[in-house]
Design goal:
With about 70 residues, the chain is α+β, with helices and mostly antiparallel strands. Strands 2-1-3-4 form a 4-stranded mixed sheet. The longest helix has 10 residues. The radius of gyration is 11 Å and the shape is globular. The relative contact order is 0.29.
Length: about 70
């Protein structure tokens, strides 16, 4: 899985906390992107944080990302 974050993004802190709790249970690559970088190809506006799953699907809801990392 790959987690995309932007410094200063309001959803970054809870997502990073969930990633810290999940450390060791799943392989997670954390990438810092700019607030204007479009990470999800089918969204017309930039959105972070974003979790790209191994299947290629994207989660871009902070609460959904936190729930997924707690599994």
């Amino acid at each position: 899985m790959r987690l995309f974050l932007s410094e200063g993004s309001p959803g970054s802190l809870p997502v990073l906390a969930a990633a810290g709790r999940a450390r060791g249970r799943a392989e997670l690559l954390i990438s810092t992107v700019g607030p204007e970088d479009c990470v999800v190809p089918f969204l017309t506006q930039p959105k972070v944080p974003v979790l790209q799953l191994d299947s290629g699907n994207y989660l871009f809801s902070t609460s959904a990302i936190c729930r997924r990392q707690n599994l």
